[in-house]
Amino acid sequence: MARITGIKCIRTRVTATWVIVKVLTDQPGLYGIGSAHDYNATGAVVAAIEDWMAPRLIGRDPAMIEDIWQSTFTSGYWRSGPTHNAALAGIDIALWDIKGKEAGMPVYQLLGGPVRSAVPCYAHAVGNTLPELEDDIRRYMEDGWQYIRCQVGAYGGGGFVPATRPHTPDPSRTPWGEAWPSWPAGQAFDDDVYIENTVAMFAHLRERIGFGPKFTHDVHEHLRPTSAVSLAKRLEPFRLFFLEDVLPPEQIGWYRQIRQQCATPQAIGELFTNVQEWLPLISERLIDFIRCRVSKIGGITPAQKLAHLAEAFGVQTAWQEGGNTDPVNLTAAMHLDMTSYSFGIQEENWFRPEELEAFPGHPVLQGGFLYPNDRPGLGIDIDEVKALALVDPVRARTPRYLVEDRRADGSVIRP
Q: How far apart are CA 343 and CA 220, in angstroms?
């Protein structure tokens, strides 16, 4: 029987924002790796693992995954926060890696065995203009991609107006005058402009490309609730595969209004960390895709339970990835995708060649499909020397914050 002898964190990527957890055992060569990713609060996650979670797990049997998860989940009394969940996920995913290695089979076999040959993914097409976006979509289609997310510019693109009069207040007339920062700076977000341009975008794409490819779009929570309902209704004729994050987590009750008024498929979940956020949406069948990040809800153990819950109510999974997550998180999601009947689609992620070299055994993404290997455990490892060589010390010390998009009156938008 193996015992846990140590848990350490390896920070990698140029910004040192990938936190790879390594759980060591007393069996020669037996260890597991997991993802505890948090792009903005990276140091807090590392401290939670090394200073708080790791000491109580030394000497425990790594095979007792469920008990370790449950006892660690409540070990600090308060739970379900993003930092806590990410730290717990790193350990949980590593324990599944160990279990697979001990069993001599991939994690997807331990989870019930594969129900598909490979994992379909959706691409991220983007352009600053509609012709540029169309060209990017066609590039993906030529490479075999069937599912494509369509965005003009950054999140909220198509919805920004110049932050000048008459859109914005005159700073000289405010109580604090010119001495106070002028909000917004450069550009302001306008719900109506965004809705009109997004509808026009899909009208253009369907006219030019047709209804063959399956399109998605990410609103990234920029809209007010009534605007979200309006956009979902107006996009219905363009038959999206799904409309993502049309509402922020604080306003999920509005999905009832959306469901009552249109059939545009809805996807949400990347900001969720608590079961009570997704439970009503799934049990009332108010959404079509649940898009949590595996490392933000606590790892493979709770993610599999979520997938089973979704299956019972006809909701599909679309685990969140995106540009800042790591190859281990993607691999954990892939193992769930391979075994889950409720699987819908997997978000793509691209890594630089030198990043992939630090993770031997990583899944292969080609032509819109993610392909696993048959190695025991997760099938992915980490080369610590190459991983540490990726880090830029200056960028690693630089705090990271989300972009502050603001409305014309200067109030901040919740992304």
A: 22
Residue type, 174: T
Give the phi and the psi of residue 354 in degrees, each rounded to 5.
-70, -25
CA–CA gap between residue 407 and residue 187 (Å, rounded): 9
Q: Is the pLDDT of residue 176 over 70?
A: no
Domain ranges of the chain: 4-106, 110-378
User: How far, in Å, CA of 110 to CA of 118, rounded?
Assistant: 17
CB 38 within 8 A of CB 15: no
Q: Does this chain's domain 4-106 share its CATH topology with 110-378? A: no
Stretch 356-375: mean pLDDT = 98
Structure tokens at 110: 């331990």
CA distances from 321 to 122, 349, 407 (A): 11, 6, 28
Q: What is the CATH code of the structural domain delimited by 4-106?
A: 3.30.390.10
Main-chain dihedrals φ then ψ at residue 75, nearest 5 degrees: -70, -20
DSSP helix/strand/coil, 138: helix
Whether the per-residue pLDDT at 169 is higher than 80: the answer is no
Q: Is the pLDDT of residue 360 over 90?
A: yes
Whether pLDDT at 179 is above 70:
no
CA geometry: angle 398, 400, 404, nearest 5 deg:
135
CATH number, domain 110-378, options 3.20.20.120, 3.40.50.300, 1.10.150.20, 1.10.150.120: 3.20.20.120
Calculate the alpha carbon distances from 240 to 150, 209, 235, 264 in Å: 10, 14, 7, 7
CB 73, CB 298: distance < 8 Å: yes
CA distance 184 to 409: 7
Give me the count of residues in the chain: 415
Residue 178's pLDDT is: 59
Q: Would you name the residues annotated as active-site residues?
A: 155, 220
What is residue 181's predicted lDDT score, i.e. its pLDDT? 61
Q: How far is CA 66 from the centre of its chain?
A: 24
pLDDT (0 to 100) of residue 1: 86
Share of residues in the chain with pLDDT > 90 (%): 90
> Long-range contacts made by residues 205-211, C-beta under 8 angstroms, separation at least 24?
205/130, 205/133, 205/134, 205/137, 205/150, 205/238, 206/238, 208/134, 209/134, 209/137, 209/138, 209/141, 211/239
Which of helix, strand or coil describes residue 150?
Answer: strand
